[in-house]
Amino acid sequence: MDTITDVNTDIDVFGIVQKGQADDRLPATAALVVAVLRALRDNVSAESVDNMSCSRADMTLTQLAMGLREHDGFFGISFEHAIHLGVAQRMQPMYGYVCAALRNMFGWDWPIESVIYGIEKRDHEGFLGRFDELFGEDPTLVTVCNKGTPLTKELFTKLRKPKEWLKLPDDLRGLYKTDLFFGSREQRRWTSVSIKSRSGAVEDWPGIALAIYPYDRKKEKVVGDFVMRNMGKVTAHLPIALDDSFMFHFHSAFRLVDTLVEKRFDQPEQRVFYDPVERWLANFLCDRRKDRIADVEEALAKQIGTVETKSVYLPGTSGLITDPEEVWKQLPNDLKQRLLFSALPIYAESPTLNSILRP
C-alpha cells in the first residue's frame, strides 16, 4: 500500500480547509469520496438491502457494490451529496460561493448549514419523520423565495396529505422539488435548493430559490445568457465551473468510487489509478472492502488527520476568514457579477435591494 507521507495529513476529512495546494488534494478528495459512498449507499434499493440481510447502516463496501444494480443517476445523486458535504463542512471554494450567493440574495450574514432532503422525497412518511426530527413539532421553515412564507404547523399538516400540496402557498408548493435546505437552525431560516448535474436540467419552480449545477466554461456562455434566462423567474442560478477546484476533486472522487464499485472493491491494477492521491485512496478502500462503510469513513478520517476547524480558508489569502463580508470580498469578480445578476429577478421590487446587493 502506498504511504501517505507525500501529502498533507494535518486536515480533518470532515473539517476540510482547502488551501489550493497540490499536497492538500488528499483530504478534499477523501471527503468527497465519503459523500459519494453515502450517496450510493442511500441509492441501494430496499429490496437489495433485504436480500443481503443487513441494514443500510451496517452495509460493507462489498455489499454496496453487490447491491447497486445500475449506474444511471449515480452522478446526480453523488453531486447532490457532494454539495451538501461541501457546505456542511465548509469546504472551499463551495462554501464561499454559497455564503456569497445567500448573502447577496437574502442578506444572510450568519454561518450557513446544509440539510439533505432529496433521498427522503422517495419515501413520503420517511421524509416527514426526518422533517420532524430536524425542525421539531412546530416547524417554522422559511423558504426565502418571493414571499418568504413561513411553514407553520398548520401548513405543515398539509405535507402529510399529498393531495394538499397544491393548496400550499406558491413559495412552499415546490418543496417536493427540493434537494437541499440551506440555512440556520439557530436563525430558523432556510431556503430550498435544487441540485442538477447539468444546466439543461434546471427548472424554474416557485419553491426553489437557488439552483446549483456544473457547467463547462469553454462551451457554455454563462454571464450574458445566464442573466437573460433568469429574467422574470424566481430561481437564481449558481453554476460551478468544471475546472473549479471543487469540481476537480469531486470528479476524481466519483471516478474512483465508480471504478471500484464495478470491480467490487477488488484491488485494481496500478495503471487504473496513475494519480498518487487516487491510488492511495483506492488501496485504502480495497483493503477495507469487508468493513462497514461507517467504519471506513471513521478510519479514513483518523488516517488523514484529526485537526478540526470551523473557520473559512479561501485560496490565495493569508489566513482564516470567518466574516461573510470578507468572504464576499475574496470572490472572483466574474462570480460576484453572476451572483448579483442572479438575485435581480427575485428582488427587483424589493425596497432593500440596494442594501442587499453590493458590488
| Strand elements, count | 9
Q: Class by helix and strand content? A: alpha/beta
Helical segment count: 15
Task: Indicate the proportion of strand residues.
Answer: 5-15%
Rg to the nearest angstrom?
Answer: 21 Å
* Global morphology: globular
Q: How many separate structural domains?
A: 2
SSE arrangement, N to C: HHHHHEHEEHHEEEHEHHHEEHHH
Helix content: 40-55%
Strand sequence of the main sheet, in spatial order? 1-4-5-6-7
Mean of residue pLDDT? 70
Poorly predicted ranges: 1-23, 223-232, 306-324, 339-359
User: In angstroms, what separates the terminal alpha carbons?
Assistant: 50 Å
Largest sheet: 5 strands, mixed
Describe the 3D structure:
The chain is built from 15 helices and 9 strands. Helix 1 crosses helix 10, helix 5 (94-106) packs across helix 13 (324-330) and helix 5 (94-106) runs parallel beside helix 14. A 5-stranded mixed beta sheet has the order 1-4-5-6-7. It has a two-stranded antiparallel sheet with strand order 2-3. The chain is globular and about 55 Å long. Mean pLDDT is 70; it is low at 1-23, 223-232, 306-324 and 339-359. The protein folds into 2 domains: 1-93 and 244-310, no CATH class; 105-238, no CATH class. It has 359 residues and is of the alpha/beta class. Helices cover 43% and strands 10% of the residues.
Please describe the structure with a list of short key phrases separated by commas or semicolons:
single chain; 359 residues; alpha/beta; five-stranded mixed beta sheet; two-stranded antiparallel ribbon; 9 strands; 10% strand; disordered C terminus
